[in-house]
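Before we proceed, please read the two lines closing this message. Tell me what the token row says about the fold.
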Amino acid sequence: MHHQQAGLALPEGSQLERERHVQAAELDPLSASQVVPIGTHPPAHQQTAAFASEEQDEVEEAAAPAVHMPEADGSPSAKRQKMSGPASGFTDSDLAPQPIEAARMVAAATKNALGLTGSSTGDSAVRTASPLDSGPVRVVHVQRRDDIEAVRAGLPVTGMEQEVMEALLQNDVVVLCGETGCGKTTQVPQFLYEAGYGCPSFPERSGMIGVTQPRRVAAVSTATRVADELDTSLGQIVGYQVRYDRRLSQQTALKFMTDGILLRELQEDFLLSKYSSIIIDEAHERSLNTDLLLGLLSRVVPLRRAMSQDPQSSVQPLKLLIMSATLRMDDFTGNRRLFPTPPPLVHVPARQYPVTLHFNRRTELDDFVGAAYQKVCKIHRQLPPGGILVFLTGQQEVEQLCKRLRQGLQLAAARLPRPHHKAGMPEPAQALLPQQQQGGEATCGATDNQEGGNDDLDDLYGGDALEAAGEAAVGSVSSDTDAEVMSEGDGDSEEEDLPVLGGEGFTPEELAQAEQQFSAQLGTAKAEDKSTHNATEGTGLVHVLPLYANLPRTAQTRVFENPPAGSRLIVVATNVAETSLTIPGMRYVVDAGRSKQKILEGGGALAQYDVRWISKASAQQRAGRSGRTGPGHCYRLYSSAHFNDTFPAHTPPEILNTSLEGLVLLMKAMHVDKVPHFPFPTPPEAEALLAAQKCLVSLSALHPASHPSTPLGLTPLGRAMSYYPITPRHARMLLQAALDGKASKKRRPVVAYAVALAAALSVDSPFIHVDAITGEGDEEEAKRRRQSARGYQKKFHSSHGDAITALNVLCAYEQSPSPDSFCRQNYLHARNLREMAALHAQLNRAVMQRPPDQQEGLMGRAPHSKGLSEEDAKGLPAASAFVVQELRQALAAGWADQVARRVRAHEQVAEGEQASGKRRAVRYQTCSRDDFVFLHPRSSLHSTAPEFVVYTQLISTAKRPYMAGVTAIEASSLSEVAKPLCIWSSPLLDPPPSYSPVSDAVQCWRHVTFGKHDWPLPAVLMTHPDAEARTAVFATALLQGKVLPVLQDFKNAWSVPTNMTAGKGSLQQIQAAELLHALMQQGIDSRESLAKTWRKEPVLLQRHLLECLRKGKRQTLMKKWPQVLAEAFQVAD
């Protein structure tokens, strides 16, 4: 590829690009056209600035790029109009003269053809002036390789470039709807880049183009693809930033990132001053971060527009483009709280190969795994070559079906006759395809490149942690023999066909060409001899692979490799293969219509992993997997009536089914006080918001409300929690460790282990599920391996709980010289541990940048920890007993509202439940619920059952609710770290309140109860709550010499009783009453407050103390008064 350097002849671009630049000039005939040619990028080791410098030497002859200028009737002219300008990378050149009236006619005709006439009339909060008022047309000319141009020419979105850019010129907010595969993810950012956005030479568009993706892999892979299309090194013009990685430079114009990264930038800079345009991609997934971003950006965009109207302001308007893959646009365009005036909608039609839908006449409600096995067997035995993609619910079902398919189909291949099809004209069995559609026999083509070269991996690493629960009901395996499965005429195999899905815009010739390409790909070209067949037809060999989120990356990528010669590829997957994923050669989809979903109840307090029906939109996405690279078929294991009556139209947004404490804390930190009034695309439930605020109050992040209608304010501790990129619970735990964790010179600070623990608890369990371990067909070998796995994993178990166990694994992993071998040997999830280690490093950097000792006002005292050093963060050894004790207390602070107490036997009897030998499970009662919960059998505390525990999550199963992530705690720690949930008695009179010189406070003993059920906790010695009582006790201690030792010489010389708390009799003396009044008026109840007062008024209290002394001792006190002051200042300092 060759770009045009400044001042040199610019090679012709594609016809589409030339027409785009001409059309842009037609719509603005009175303005200058700015064209920015981009220089050829050298190899990576010689990479220079992304754009040519303005100080480049001028060349003798500078020729501007040739541009087609159409005639007045709109037809392109054959002549080339040359534009000349200075030899700079950014040039302002005037268009060649042409009749103004003719140009205006061309512009009007073009607008009519695009349907733009009258589209910008009326006032709008999201619409701006027409292109004629928007200044000169900005163009960055890009020349791409021929192979890239060929791919782009076939993308539906490329033909809509004019419509997209015109809508964006006239409006600040645009919604683009394009089905998966139309190319919007990779091409739309390039549209903006070629229009001058991200170009420092155009001040009004000099900010970067920000593109958000819901998953890290999608952001990285899309940035890689776009950089390749623009022929630039990744990290130069095109860069990315994700949670653990970033490749950016000062030349970056296109920045791909996860939505969480942009949220963090919004927290620091609400105007997003670094950006000229923002693209929110995959908005249809409705993730929590995406919804929050849309609500915030709906306020940032008009604010930027209003500020740009000020001539003195340097702020430029911000363009927002929302891209979605579904037609559910009402949440965006019809939400008046989000956008008072609906933004325009640009629809990009997608070219999807035809997919024939086949519904079962009878819905299989129980054994859907067995039904999927039967369907796959029949497809393999009776249908032409092509890959089979099976959608199931979780890891256990996937592995179960893979094992059965490997065994059953390989045996069947040896004993069943192969069907004979005519060469080049496959004839599917009547039982499976009663009415085959024309063109439905075409097979899949090559790997799809429409959304970007690496978009195949978009969904492999996001959002499918549900299958790790392993507690939901699993469909039983059918006991039918393989011969019975593949027998002809089974009643449940009868299907009802619906009209073909997709296929618009394809001619019979294109479908035939796709068939030929697919045949060439699989090596199954039409045989000349009709009596011969390829080994993949009928009952040939099979290559069965699983695909789910917890599968190692190397095993996941195997699905994209070519299967062995003569084998049919069968992929059994969870819903990770549902969107943004193209597996080569997939022609058939078998859809069970179910997915394992995480359902939150009680405002997020209880999580239930349940197998439920998917939405109609998800079912369409699954069917489309067989039509991405060629015509295909989708076999649905449910009836059309069940589909129409039972399946919801769309999957509910994440905001309706997730805990919202992190969202509320972030919004409070951004000064959004009234969260219920925020313009969410879909408002969260009031119960969930209330539960989130209640949780943050229990974590001491929000002040308790004085009135139900009063917004809850953020505490200093809550503001510090919002800084760290983890959940509020993990941040609270980390800061508690910093508050209490003391470190000597010989040991690491507790906060170093707290950072590692926060990382370990933020990721799924590092242990491989022992029951999922197989033995390659040998049951005895499987039992031996499972027993070995239990032994290896038990080495890391801690008697203090599951959280400390996870910390032990992470510390051992980071110290291992060979992490991958360490994981294989100990049966650990390498992927989860890699993510833990990456998050650990990120949190270390965050804590080093903003150490806890710099957070002022945390819990009213200064942290003991002085933060982390680089040495502290390296290779943590196993935690000592002291560190574990501090971490257990920190865990109690982070999950203060998720404490459970063991139910004693006599309490069960009192409730009328007699203990018997059959009831072996130890029951617990939580501090916020009425029902009982249980320790999970795989918990390290299952055999010990401590009295008080904290848990990270409640999981509801068909048997009983279990606690996950359990850690044993001391009951006495709750009164220290969970004060908002404690109820305190009045100060006890026995023992009486007293002044403590060590803590410099008046303290008293109080009884404490905790939680909803008023669990009694040990009595607590704490600061006296009554100010008047504190003053009286302090005055007593002052006269007795307990505050200032120099006053002990006057212990027996006072004329008033030294016990100021004895009763009203002592107050009858005027001297004592005046002393107490003076102390109370100045708020003196500690040595520190006394010293602070004396620094301002050294003689304060002198008269009152002299009057309380016998006359013979008053002169002595006057002589020692400087010593009294010095002692007060010295002890206080």
Remarks:
- The radius of gyration is 36 Å.
